[in-house]
Amino acid sequence: MASKLQLEGGIALVTGAAAGIGKETVLAFAEADVEGIVLADLNDASAVIEESKKFAKNENFRAIAVQLDVSDENAVRAMVDTAVNEFGRIDYCVHCAGMGNISGATTEHLKIDVFDKTVAVNIRGTMLVVSTVSKAMAAQEPRTCQNPSARNPTATRDLGRGSIVTIASVNAFVPAPGMMPYTSSKHAVIGITKTAALDNIKNHIRVNAVCPSWTDTPMMQASLQRVPQLGHIIQKLSPLGRAASPDEVADYIMFLCSPSATYINGSCLMIDAGLTLTAHGAASL
Ligand SMILES: NC(=O)c1ccc[n+]([C@@H]2O[C@H](COP(=O)([O-])OP(=O)(O)OC[C@H]3O[C@@H](n4cnc5c(N)ncnc54)[C@H](O)[C@@H]3O)[C@@H](O)[C@H]2O)c1
To answer: Ligand 1 pocket check: which of 14, 15, 21 to mutate, most ligand atoms within 8 Å of Cβ?
Structure first.
């Protein structure tokens, strides 16, 4: 097995940490040697804290949970204050909290309350987390990494003041029927990410999005309940014939937070096994 990327310390804040991609991201951070993690979620994330301790590499490893709704401005500010008060800084913020497509109604039948709820969690929540964390990161000292590679032993890499990763979706680029609230919210996540990346150049904070296709999490399991034929659709449309596992997405997130990604900013990286290349149906020919 190839060795995993190591972060050698630093403090991570993960939203949506109680389940799915967020939970897996917490475990990957622990394994990547971070010193502290704040697990933020609507639900209680204490079971994930216990699990993370099994993988933690850092001898000073510590994790705390914060329960909040990311669409609540005061709660997001309190979450960031808690992280800074407890750990002194935030080096990595991965914003995984989000909601899936809950109705499936096509455009002419779409209910405004479903749209508004999705906008509140997926757009307002992303804006609040990215903006508030940017402010906290901008006020902290930058870090450097000595000797990032044995190939260049005298090199130093500037890590800047932090790395923020948002979770968009392939739906940020391609629509799916009956998914206007989710699809438009994920387009907005890209807009937030790119603007924050641009605004944060002066602060030396990198902001990137990852764009997964189907990933086997509780969110995908809920979609399978609602749309029973989805399993067959995934098998047929995914070039690998399967959904991603959450750890495949978390590995990509670790790369974006690592000293290996210091030149990557404002990017929106697909994690789709090539799904979005195959719209013309060549994969099934
Ligand atoms: N699973 C997929 O197929 C898939 C594909 C592409 C993108 N995504 C995106 O990845 C992100 C994570 O998805 P997942 O599949 O891990 O979902 P999930 O439902 O499995 O987990 C999401 C977590 O976020 C929390 N959460 C939801 N709303 C919240 C709120 N308002 N405040 C705080 N916490 C909240 C939930 O409690 C849960 O613990 C989402 O933005 C989702 O849109 C998922």
So the answer is: 21
